[in-house]
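step: validate -> pass
step: tokenize input -> pass
step: predict -> running
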Amino acid sequence: MRTAICTSAIAATLFLAGCGSSSSTEADRHIVEGSSTLFNSKGKFDEDSARADAVADVSASSFENEGDTSNCTDDCSGHNAGFEWAKENAAGDPSMCSGNSDSFVEGCAAFSQAVENHVTEMREEWEAGEE
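step: predict -> pass
step: emit ->
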């Protein structure tokens, strides 16, 4: 009995010690209170906040860093143009990407895909409780 009480006391102490932690991760910034199937001890994953941060992160990047350059002809100028257009228009949805140039559309879609990849990474970090 005494062992069970000590074990419970240690577990409670460790739990409470974790509650006072002030460290914040990228995933921590994307939580809101409420109910959801995506719920952990911290709250609900805030998809809108994560998406806004992902758009900002990808907007600071380039097609060469985020896209597949293997489809480029000489200098990826068409892909870059599509990627830059998507940045300026916050095109997080690939259905917004259209035009007469395949490379432009591919560059725009690369922006959208990079945003989705960043959101997915944040969600996975949040679900795993990584700090």
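step: describe -> The longest strand covers residues 43-45.
step: cleanup -> pass
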